[in-house]
Design a protein that fits this description.
It contains twelve helices and nine strands. The longest helix has 15 residues. It starts with a helix and ends in a 28-residue tail after the last helix. About 45% of the residues are buried.
Length: about 325
């Protein structure tokens, strides 16, 4: 199979058309996209190892997160299946010569051009929900596992199974019988389709239940340490711009999302959910310890390391049967 035909099989025709129209270019700079951007950056900053760790941004679009990470001193490699996104990233890279990306390439998440165990972290922020076949999602996650160093981190984002229902309720889309049919399939199967290509109804995708995202990550051999809400219920605010434009109200909004970010009963209300996972290989009687980015910076190490001390936090003690300690 040629490279072009393999990439065509990775994304649906509808998704390729959706992104080749340039709809993603400014999405995160307006409306509730600003909340998604801020919260994603916050979570990455919290848990990533310090620069100059090696990061693969797979399915990273035109590089909005990749360039931000490079500005902080990371070695960032951007890969996306949409040629337009890569062209946009290459153009933008000319304006960021002081903090260039290590590489920018069209590629297939199921077959990454990278040596085994050579990457500190992989971010999958816009990839998994466009792999509508479970086998493709597992293949991409297993490829992520292959290139990660032991102790390396994965940040895998899914769209919530319930996002279209909530969006339809709050935006009035449920008045449209066509959207009702879309929602019913989303809830029943997780398979999102937009037969008429309505611009407000997104494109072909798969919507995860939080437990389903965790199960897929673990099936790929990764240890799912937590599932976090990205936007929480903040994306549903009818007066979002009013909250976001006022610093004090913006901070209250973000704080309330943090309070509930791990609450299982409300995870599905978030438009996007993030799985944080760890590549763990037993070392004697112990597994490598996952630590927050702040703890890593304080210790001066750029990877999750073996430790016989009690864990500083119980936030990530989610894996059954692990040998992690809790405070």
């Amino acid at each position: 199979m040629s490279d072009s035909s393999r990439l065509q099989s990775l994304l649906s025709d509808e998704a390729l058309t959706h992104y080749e129209n340039g709809r993603e270019a400014h999405r995160l700079s307006k409306g509730v996209g600003q909340l998604e951007l801020a919260r994603t950056q916050e979570l990455l900053s919290r848990y990533l190892p310090p620069p100059p760790a090696v990061i693969f941004d797979v399915g990273g679009g035109n590089g909005i997160y990749a360039f931000w990470l490079a500005q902080q001193g990371y070695e960032v490699h951007l890969i996306d299946a949409v040629p337009l996104h890569i062209e946009q990233a290459q153009i933008y890279s000319q304006t960021q010569r002081a903090h260039p990306l290590a590489s920018i390439a069209v590629g297939d998440a199921r077959q990454l051009n990278r040596a085994d165990a050579s990457v500190d972290a992989v971010v999958l922020l816009g990839l998994l929900y466009h792999l509508i076949e479970r086998s493709d999602r597992i293949a991409a996650l297993r490829e992520t596992h292959r290139i990660l160093k032991n102790g390396g981190l994965v940040f895998a984002v899914g769209i919530s199974r319930f996002a279209s229902t909530l969006d339809g309720l709050f935006r009035g889309y449920l008045d449209d019988p066509e959207f009702v049919a879309i929602v019913q399939r989303d809830l029943a199967e997780g398979q999102h389709r937009n037969p008429s290509n309505h611009p407000a109804y997104f494109t072909t995708a798969f919507f995860h239940h939080p437990e389903e995202l965790k199960a897929e990550v673990e099936e790929a051999g990764l240890s799912c340490e937590n599932i976090l809400a990205i936007e929480g219920s903040g994306w549903l605010l009818q007066n979002f711009e009013e909250h976001w434009s006022q610093p004090s109200r913006r901070e209250r909004l973000l704080q309330s999302i943090r309070w509930l970010e791990t609450e299982p009963s409300t995870l599905g209300m978030s438009a996007h959910i993030m799985a944080i996972a760890l590549k763990t290989e037993p070392v004697g009687d112990w597994l490598p310890e996952l630590r927050s980015g702040e703890a890593l910076r304080a210790s001066g190490t750029g990877r999750a390391t073996r430790s016989l001390k009690k864990r500083q936090s119980s936030r990530f003690c989610q894996k059954r049967g692990s040998k992690y300690h809790q405070t």
